User: Which sequence fits this backbone?
């Protein structure tokens, strides 16, 4: 791999940078993100003079989180790698191949340079066992910790009743995470029946928002009470209103959560809200300003937790859950392996709302 | 005291109700709240057949939290007395003399009935020592735990830099609470110089929002950086915009906090946001809907904690701080003792924004 | 039921006392504890003048925690009902039918008086559904929250590896609780093969301590590393040493945990340690003094959490887990229903170490 | 400085190593530890090819924690730098100049090599302001975070009553930390009147253990009740029994804490307990085995938190407290500046129990 392929966003600050061959790669939304990589000694590692074999050796299989993070700033030191101060000149937090997240090149390729590789790599303890679960482990870099963070920050615990808004990959991962955290009942709402079917396939209750405009009423049919303990917004600003007349309503999910979460409850909000949305109809929405029924949430003493996930914070424990058969995340998000050539088609399908998570496998590793 | 004076809101559910003579009483905002009471055995306690002297005896001095709470529901059992399920037919949470909070009669009188008295009373361990600090202890029922909850839920800890929006009694109590929690710097913003002077009197930095419209710039002058670790909204929906042209802007404080709190920070929001505001100009504001720059907060991974304080959760530890000279809350909020007859005048002063906390002393206890 | 049957330990302090018919009842160790009760209006409730139907009505099915707790002291107010200050003149904390725990009469009978019933009852939301799961719900008053508290205080979370010392009912409940909290692997150690078989029946790994004296070695065979993330002591002071020569060694479990828990780990210690053990051989053990390899734990920065469980803190969420099919606690502890007459035989079996949890069913409710 | 002076303990794993000139240095116990250093560009930094000025520049003043920590292992990634897995072949956790902690050379010299300098340095934001508080900032590397960790892990918060065993530097730092966390009353116990006088100098209550053998009785005289909320063991295994007949009694402090901490309380245990003590009289003590009245702690549902402090976790917030005048740690521990030549004398004084904290100043920085 030519050295000019290296990410240059903040490269002058990088102490250790490692080229890895991409084993598998996958999409979360607009851009694709890469995930499970190995270090090929044939690649140039000219930057290194010191011994790094205590961190990574030829042939190791590792996971790389989607958050680019330096490991030295105060945020990284307290596990908040999603808001690293050194990887994005515009704002805290960087990511591969993401708008506005530091200009790091995406991983839809055969090889990728990983900056801060001494800090960011998660090495799988047993290569053979890792390969058996590689499709699940591929979910560690982004979608699984994103869903898990949503569930954790919503306060899901043993016996919780949870509403998850959205049955796309983030919503499905959040729903499965809520199950792992012991939720008594997980209810997923979406406009598309195909996605809801996917949610039911692993034990969730569902609400078709195309057919029903009163989420509380539907929750009552399921639980006997019109409220849940907590909620996860896996939709974000691209929300539509409920019911048959579903117009663009960027605060629709937030306002629904205020309605259906019981007093004292929390929301985890992994769904993206943008600071600016030039394509929005509404002048307020253009400025990222939403009409939120804040007084309703306040009167119920609700708490909100927003933002991207610090994937590194969760990746080790989620890896342990996968390796020991406790998490079934690839099936949950309907992981579908494609080749690098098929990527454009994968994107198109994703954009049309297919209930699939496309995983790019540039070296044919998964089909071997 | 005639028995018909009893609060009737939910009285059929009350197991123990005790008449107390009002020692002192004080205002938080629109209505006045009562606070430190004692139980006078001359008063009728006909409802009781059992021995309650293990809870309260004649002559004990007690504090009563402003949240009416049953002590038996799941919320009370987990210390969330601010959202008790049994004291307000309209919604979770009750309070004395408050709009929409269960219809409980306010405490601006010589005697008051306390429902759920077996659960709600905080007995001061030493009567004599309590009388020495009675003006500070009066703040335990409402303003001190309200400010403290704001600071706790903003995550204030040793070394924090904190922005407090509003220098009314809630803001001042929040600022002092932040100091008790170890804040390195507390910065208070308000439109009135008289209130800011009060904030400076106990060591806060201040920003006059009438003179400056860029809070971040002012913070930078104080701290060297334009952001704080966390913030407390002690204003609520009655916010004005900053600068000289300060029009009514109900989301002004929320949007400022998103701007000046660093990534990963939290806000505590004790300031009131209403579900409906019939007097608002704006149609959205009438429905309690605010234009919040939610995308900005999301991009910084902020967390929000809203609602009233569960006063009982904090009252014992704050009492210990007062009795041992660690908290100076009466001076902080500029407590000013008045008689029951002077109450209307006190209200008028409060409404005009006086930097005072009026404490009604119906029996002349404080002037003895 | 004659009124003189009422528990008199601290009865002068009781505001509401309710007679309940015992639906099912069960043993935890030396004494039997009662559990799921209903309120029969034929029983005398003369103490009551007020309306209590908002708390309990004729025919309701409720759970009563084994901790007797007043609901008014500072401990109860912060959910620490296991150390209530008003129910035991000797020390904090009371329990039914337990040595040294306040003299409250045990529940091995047809009817029992519940003190502080207004505070302590957990009402099941749907009577019919409750009866379908009544054997599991019976475990809510003691064994399930005891095991759960052990797992919670050991810090078990998604992906944890956990060692549980002891496969008696507490150990089995702790192991199942660890699974509910997301443990990747749960390893149970015991001296009896029959008990270990029970642990394997719901997916635990096991170590027979009769056959192996190096727990770390056995853990390494299972996990690939000789340490676990955290541990639960479900044995207490009645521990035996490991290996074939298992003499009485009251600190054996504590010392093993220090050995096999990785640095930074926690232990939950629900297993009973006594303040005095007059029957002990050792003079130190008689005084409840153990020889603990404290330096080993210190060098690994371990944390210990001890004591009984505050059952009320957990009962509602565990009830939700049971009612929604997420917890299988009756099977886990091998619940075995017996009549009141068979109780002495049940005790004898329990004392001999049978891998069974006996549930007394005095009214034949469970066999209907 | 010759390169062979470099610490070699684990140097093959070090990516960035920086030579720093020692500004000040100080003692914690047996060995001396270094603390505030600056990076002098005249020193050889041959290992570096990359730009590190985003981490440290010539002339920066930094703090270095006493815990040597790699920044890449799972422990460092979760802020547990006290149990780093890569800096000590014997066990988790390394330190400079400490027995059994990885063989890293101590800092009692003019220049020191800092391994993992990219991860470990805390840069002071303003050089001039830092020099004004340099004696306080010197305490950031060890004694202040050690005391603070003790107070944090004991659960000290607003209004707590706290017992601190030991008035040596760790105990004094713990007592001051408890004050910063809002303690209502801090009570320090020691055998030496001179040390207790130091504790009283910043507002602590004291108990002379030479004169009194019943700590609970003394606590009752101060508080009115014989128990505190929580306790900090700043003594460790070198404890003496209380009273006039004070023999060596390694579990004396632990047993006292079980006695005087109220039910539900926690202890922070920064005081050192060794895995082996070859010099002990007692055979058990030789093996680091203590006779602990564990049953007493269990019956009160106590929790224990042990081990060294992760200094990096706390250093930034404590720096903020110092720079903004909230912490007075140098005065609290009676910091006394000496030259490098006076170090042997300083050690001798420390060993004799002088109520002083010696700070070595090899370049005369503090006296300029």
Assistant:
């Amino acid at each position: 791999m030519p050295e000019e392929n290296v990410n240059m966003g903040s490269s002058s600050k990088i102490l250790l940078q490692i080229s890895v061959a991409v084993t598998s790669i996958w999409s979360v939304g607009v851009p694709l993100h890469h995930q499970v990589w190995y270090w090929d000694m044939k690649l140039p590692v000219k930057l290194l003079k010191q011994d790094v074999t205590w961190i990574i050796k030829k042939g190791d299989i590792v996971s790389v989180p989607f958050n680019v993070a330096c490991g030295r700033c105060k945020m990284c030191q307290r596990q908040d790698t999603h808001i690293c101060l050194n990887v994005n000149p515009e704002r805290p937090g960087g990511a591969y191949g993401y708008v506005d997240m530091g200009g790091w090149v995406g991983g839809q390729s055969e090889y990728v340079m990983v900056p801060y590789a001494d800090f960011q790599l998660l090495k799988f303890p047993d290569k053979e066992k890792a390969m058996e679960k590689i499709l699940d482990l591929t979910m560690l870099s982004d979608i699984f910790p994103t869903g898990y963070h949503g569930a954790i920050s919503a306060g899901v615990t043993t016996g919780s009743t949870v509403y998850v808004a959205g049955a796309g990959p983030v919503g499905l991962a959040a729903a499965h995470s809520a199950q792992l955290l012991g939720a008594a009942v997980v209810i997923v709402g979406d406009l598309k029946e195909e996605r809801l079917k996917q949610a039911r396939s692993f034990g969730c209750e569902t609400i078709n928002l195309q057919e029903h405009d009163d989420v509380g009423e539907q929750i009552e049919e399921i639980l006997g009470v019109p409220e849940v303990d907590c909620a996860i917004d896996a939709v974000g600003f691209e929300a539509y209103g409920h019911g048959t007349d579903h117009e663009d309503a960027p605060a629709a999910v937030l306002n629904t959560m205020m309605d259906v979460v019981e007093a004292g409850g929390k929301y985890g909000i992994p769904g993206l809200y943008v600071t600016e949305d030039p394509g929005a109809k509404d002048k307020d929405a253009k400025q990222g300003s939403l009409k939120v029924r804040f007084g309703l949430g306040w009167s119920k003493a609700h708490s909100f937790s927003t933002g991207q996930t610090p994937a590194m914070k969760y990746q080790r424990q989620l890896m342990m859950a996968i390796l020991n058969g406790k998490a079934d995340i690839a099936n949950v998000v309907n992981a579908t392996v494609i080749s690098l050539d098929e990527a454009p088609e994968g994107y198109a399908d994703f954009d049309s709302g297919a209930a699939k998570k496309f995983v790019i496998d540039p070296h044919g590793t998964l089909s071997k």
User: Anything to note?
Assistant: Residues 1-21, 23-50 of chain B have pLDDT under 50 and may be disordered. The longest helix of chain B spans residues 311-323.
